[in-house]
Fold this protein.
Amino acid sequence: MHNTILQIAIDTPLDTTFDYRYLASTENVEQPQIGQFVRVPFGKREVAGLIVGVNKTSDVDPEKIREVIEVRHQITALSSHWMQLCEFAAEYYQRPFGEVALPAVPKALREGKVASIERALKKISGPTKSKNEEANEKTKTADTANTSETAHLATHTLNEQQQHAVDSIAATTDYACHLLFGITGSGKTQVYLQAAKALLEKTNASGQRAQILILVPEINLTPQLENQVCASFPRLNVVSMHSQLSEGERLRNWLAAHEGRADIVLGTRLAVLSSLPHLKLIIVDEEHDASYKQQEGLRYSARDLAIWRARQLAIPVVLGSATPSIESWQHAETGRYKRLALTQRAAAQATVPRVGLIDMERDKAVEGLCPSLLAALRERLARGEQSLLFLNRRGYAPVMHCDACGWISNCRRCTAFMVLHKPERRLRCHHCSLELRVPQSCPTCGNVDIQPLGRGTQRVEEHLHTLFPEARILRIDADSTRRKGSAQEAFDSVHRGDVDILLGTQMVAKGHDFQRLTLVGVINPDTALFSQDYRASERLFAQLMQVAGRAGRAASDVGSVSEVLVQTRYPQHPLYRALMNQDYTGFAASVLEERHSAGLPPFVFQALLRAEAKTLDKALEFLTTAKTLLAHEGIVINDPVPMTITRVAGVERAQLLLESSSRAVLQAFLKPWMQALRESKSRLRWSLEVDPVDI
Ligand SMILES: [Zn+2]
Ligand SMILES: [Zn+2]
């Protein structure tokens, strides 16, 4: 019997590891290793821990060192690469390692649920069938003569630009970040798949194994891409990873990746932290998308971690977008990223849609819809083509008010209006989820004639029904798709051609190719032009380009030219001019110039400290103290200010912005600063975000 000291990370806000004693007996033939899970006593509880160090001695008083209850040997230990990834994320985003590493692993594994793990392992190993194999058997499409993947992809002929992109990625033998800048419909997915194929063949030929990680911004997009990937690689094991998987599915897929059985892992942002021992290529689709940023807990950017991971492993990473983030574009401009441009639509017959602006000052809207947009809708209905109306505001009306006394439907718990949801006859706060019945009369003066102000998707839907009683109209937004699977059903019905007019929020802007869609109308995008958030115009441009891309995928198939019509009061605005010319490059150049002169990212690096309290004064006071806690040479700490939506659910919120022209200087300051803040033992809730996206 001899003594081993294990250093254990635990999921706790305490930024430290804990020493435990491990007694090796004759029964314990397997020695504990770094990267294995353990069960340990922690205070009065027993918790899961992860071994991060194996030592002979400890600095802790031997009397105080407790004993490990159990070391879990069911799975291969997590690799040092994976541990380093979590370590980097913890350091960079200023969180304890245990809070990063433990939640990144399925619960059953951490907690050593032996039966579930064994069940899952049995399913992924041995002669059981992958989803792909099952699908092949069902449809009898498996071409048994094929021993390589090649034949399944050969049907898609790449154009010159696509081929060049594939060759560049596949030729990479070290870390390189490729920015695949391709207009909507230019066939980025084909580039991903062909590059993946080339890389798999190259690696297999050299006798090595390969895994590929593909990140997508939205769960709704995973089934579509999963089908494409499975069809292209019928012999490979493709698994998905996103938050809507059941515990069992997540465990099975996670283990398949960890044990090297999954060849391709397709997932949303959380998949970036999966264990992939043979990772050889990472693809980040729609890299500009805001959903790659986790907004609570560990506030990480999955895209940025993907790039770090690629560099660590000396492998290529591909960032794809029609409207890259300004940061990525800047890196391509300076040569840090390698730009690969796709400027043509992949399907030869598909044309780029024409973008037109409707001047709302001249073409007066009725119920939010201008006559020229209605005329365009009518034409499509007459021709049996589909139209999409985009309005990024759900509910019936954003606010109700009383003309007689000026009452307005404020949320009593938030600095926000309560939104009218007419079909449900409810006022709802979109920030704290408070719900009230719609009042019969003004709560202040009793006036029975209270009115909705402004419009959301429900109101436009109602109006469309009166205008086009014969048309099949479908609304897709967070309200209409609450039930699990209902979003997929809705999109399927559009694909089947069961819908004439599709109306929706940003949910409809992403990824879906509707074959018979020849008109996209954009209602009321102007508010974003005057937002306090300096990223609002970048986001609006990306969103409008994306929604515009839904049109014209196969317009000439249905015999017409596809069109995008944007209703605006500011038709001269440079953003709309750039949109009309579909000129991302020009738009990005002007944004970079503005950011440079204003001293904003990517020319400076930021961190944001947020505080929450019962009163605004308390929150501001905490931030004022934080500001003066440590000397901060090379860093500008602005004055604390209330957040734009100051109160949410009765809690007042304020923030403190830190800026530096050097990322290293900022990082060097944050660690001791966080330590000092933790030691201040303030009872306020506070959090830090590095590289914040919403300021
Ligand atoms: Zn009133
Ligand atoms: Zn509220």
